[in-house]
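Design a sequence for this backbone.
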């Protein structure tokens, strides 16, 4: 029994470490009050596809002049938390009449960013593919639009990611400010995604993967190389996971060990006690 309990306890840390595997951050906000966001019910284990379907099925979706769908490969919730509270993106979310922020949303490894197509089919909108910082894009005020913004992938050590994320935030905020100048009625959906395996195997980055401020990123790369262990490349030990590990080791394990010791002491007592009708004198006489 003791060996079985020990085996179960040994598995607890590993099950906790992968509790948030295959999850991405999901943030949505609107320039007007949105029933689609206010009535969103993510549940205990929110799913990216389910959240999109809930937003699409809402009646006020097509009332927006533009829906912005931002796909950010490799983004973790910790990358958003590392941004300065005073940055433009944080201000936009904070000042939005309606917003939802979900740090860990399930998204399968094989899913492709088809959110823009779903919104286009729902409202008959025009899709505009936007590469941040690449130049101008056309906007027809008489039609509805879906802006599909593909952010460059982000990976590497925490310090390197923080520098890159700050540059990505600047690029994204610039595009959102440009949209705000064209229409004051829009919905923004930002979500992380998993970096494709073939993208990780590429020997070098494309021109769109390198942020404009190359000098700053090169200096950051010299201080903290993007090559690191698995804990640097993937967000395994989040604050919630660390808390779970502490609870498992400092609360659950002592309770189980106390229970085992108590059972062992009871068994030892029963073995050492003599039978009720046992008489040492009778045994000696015999």
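Sequence:
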């Amino acid at each position: 029994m003791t060996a079985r309990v020990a085996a179960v306890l040994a598995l607890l840390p590993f099950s906790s470490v992968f509790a948030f595997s295959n999850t991405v951050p999901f943030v949505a906000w609107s320039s007007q009050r949105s029933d689609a966001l206010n009535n969103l019910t993510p549940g205990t284990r929110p799913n990216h596809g389910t959240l999109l379907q809930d937003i699409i099925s809402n009646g006020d979706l097509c009332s927006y002049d533009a829906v912005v769908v931002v796909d950010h490969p490799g983004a973790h919730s910790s990358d958003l938390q590392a941004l300065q509270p005073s940055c433009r993106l944080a201000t936009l979310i904070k000042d939005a009449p309606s917003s939802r922020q979900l740090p860990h949303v399930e998204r399968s490894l094989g899913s492709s960013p088809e959110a823009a197509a779903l919104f286009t089919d729902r409202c008959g909108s025009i899709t505009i593919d936007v590469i941040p910082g690449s130049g101008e894009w056309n906007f027809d005020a008489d039609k509805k639009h879906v802006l599909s913004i593909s952010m460059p992938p982000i990976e590497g050590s925490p310090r390197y990611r923080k520098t890159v994320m700050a540059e990505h935030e600047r690029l994204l905020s610039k595009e959102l400010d440009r949209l705000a100048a064209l229409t004051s009625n829009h919905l923004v959906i930002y979500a992380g995604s998993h970096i494709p395996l073939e993208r990780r195997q590429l020997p070098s980055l494309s021109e769109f993967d390198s942020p404009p401020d190359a000098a700053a990123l090169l200096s950051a790369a010299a201080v903290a190389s993007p090559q690191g262990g698995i804990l640097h490349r993937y967000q395994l030990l989040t604050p919630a996971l660390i808390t779970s590990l502490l609870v498992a080791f400092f609360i659950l394990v002592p309770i189980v060990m106390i229970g085992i010791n108590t059972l062992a002491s009871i068994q030892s007592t029963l073995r050492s006690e003599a039978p009720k009708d046992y008489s040492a004198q009778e045994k000696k006489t015999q």
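Residues 2-12+242-285 form one domain.
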